[in-house]
Write a structure and sequence with these properties.
By secondary structure, the chain is mostly helical. Among the domains are: 1-29; 66-165. The chain is 66% helix and 8% strand. The strands form two sheets. It has a three-stranded antiparallel beta sheet, with no helix packed on it. Strands 4-5 form a two-stranded antiparallel sheet. Helix 3 (70-90) packs antiparallel against helix 5, helix 3 runs parallel beside helix 6 and helix 7 packs across helix 8 (235-245). The longest helix is centred in the first third of the chain and has 32 residues, at 32-63. 10% of the residues are buried.
């Protein structure tokens, strides 16, 4: 009953955006290549937001609890990843073994987020599993504020930036490609790398696209596919769907709802 109106609203909004964009393109106010670049950027950003939203909906669908500290879990992973990749960069490993350094950074950030999430669940949420719904909601807000203030006191308010990892630092990923630098531009067998961008021609439009946008989009699709497989095709996923559908009946069927 609710999904159909929401779907119609989303489709209407999408059609409105497309019509508005096409009218501006045809009117000369907005070039087609600009629209294509913004579309690619939006897909990359939207993929990140979609992954974060999946965590919210998964927790709420099963436990009926809004985890206000969800963003802080990602913040913890981002901080740990920053310190790890900074240390690897200072040690020279980022330049010499870029892929290995990135894998170490990614797994370190993921591990930190998992540890924080499990600690929150065990300390703050699990003891309140049978409490009134307002109690874990207030606890989640408190956990969010606590983590924010903790990281604020530990690391301050200054902006921190990950080391720049450009495509120039990936020669080991393409051992068969011969790269040369001409007038400050690096060319690898016809692939033009200008400032870490791809020059792509699509339907006659020359687009300068950040490779990270493609990477984020396809990684997000991969993780979504893995999550779909876990939820739909595994025993754990079936148990999760059963608890989300009817917790009492799932418990009667032998599923550990706690």
């Amino acid at each position: 009953m609710i999904r159909s109106p929401l779907r119609l609203i989303a489709m209407a909004l999408l059609v409105y955006i497309l019509i508005a964009a096409m009218s501006r393109i045809l009117g000369g106010d907005y070039r087609a290549d600009q629209f294509a670049r913004q579309l690619i950027f939006g897909l990359a950003q939207g993929s990140v937001y979609a992954l974060i939203a999946l965590g919210y909906t998964l927790v709420y669908g099963i436990l009926l609890m809004i985890n206000f500290a969800h963003g802080e879990v990602f913040m913890a992973g981002a901080y740990i990843g920053f310190f790890v990749i900074t240390a690897l960069n200072n040690a020279g490993l980022l330049a010499s073994q870029t892929l290995l350094a990135l894998l170490i950074t990614i797994f370190s950030g993921v591990a930190a987020s998992v540890i924080v999430a499990v600690a929150l669940e065990r300390i703050a949420y699990r003891p309140l599993r049978n409490a009134p719904r307002l109690v874990p909601l207030i606890t989640a807000i408190g956990a969010s504020i606590l983590l924010q203030q903790l990281f604020l006191r530990l690391f301050g308010v200054s902006t921190r930036r990950y080391p720049d990892v450009s495509l120039y630092a990936f020669p080991q990923l393409f051992p068969d490609l011969e790269c040369t630098t001409i007038d400050g531009e690096t060319v690898c067998r016809g692939i033009d790398l200008i400032g870490g961008r791809y020059d792509v021609v699509v339907f006659g439009l020359q687009l300068r696209i950040l490779p990270i946008h493609f990477l984020v989009f396809f990684l997000a699709l991969t993780f979504m596919a893995i999550l779909w497989f876990i939820v739909q095709r595994t025993r754990v996923g079936k148990a999760m769907r059963a608890v989300a559908e009817d917790k009492a009946t799932a418990a009667l069927m032998g599923i550990n709802v706690d």
